[in-house]
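Lab notebook, bench 4. The sequencing result for the construct came back, and we need a structural model before the next group meeting so we can plan mutations. Quick request posted to the team channel:

Model the 3D structure of this chain.
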Amino acid sequence: MASAVEITKLPDHQQVELAREGSAALARLLRNHPQQDRARVRMEDEDLILPRQALELLRHVLSEMAQGHGVSILPVHAELTTQQAADMLNVSRPHLIKLLEEGTIPFSKVGTHRRISLAHLMDYKRQRDEQGAAALQELADQAQELDLGY
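Done. Here's the predicted structure in C-alpha cell form:
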C-alpha cells in the first residue's frame, strides 16, 4: 500500500475539545474567504504557506477528531489489499472478492494477489451509498403516500 498516515490512538478529552474549536474556526475562515487559494500559518517565528486543499483536509481531520475518532489518510492513488478494501466497505473479504470477480469493482493483480485502487473503491462506495439513500427515500415516500405515520 502507498504511504499512509494513521493515528491509531484515539484523541483524549482535551484533544477532542481542541479539535472541535479548531474545526469550527477553520470552517469559519474557509467560509468567510471562499476565494483564498492559500493561507499563511504562523508557528513561533516561522511562517508556513499552505494550499486551500490542505486546509480543507485539516478541517475534515479536526472534525473527525472532535467526534473522538481516529483518522487515516491515504493518497488517492493508493492500492489496497482485499482485506483493507473489505474493511473499508465493512464487508467480508469473500464478499469483496465476489464483487471483484463479477467485475463490479476493477482490480489488478500483483503476482497472485489482487490490488484495488482506492479511487475505484471509493467510486463503488459512493454509488452503493447513493443507491441505499435512494431506496430509503423511496420507502419513506411510500410510507407518506400510505399515511403510515412515519
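The mean pLDDT is 90.
Will bring this to the meeting.
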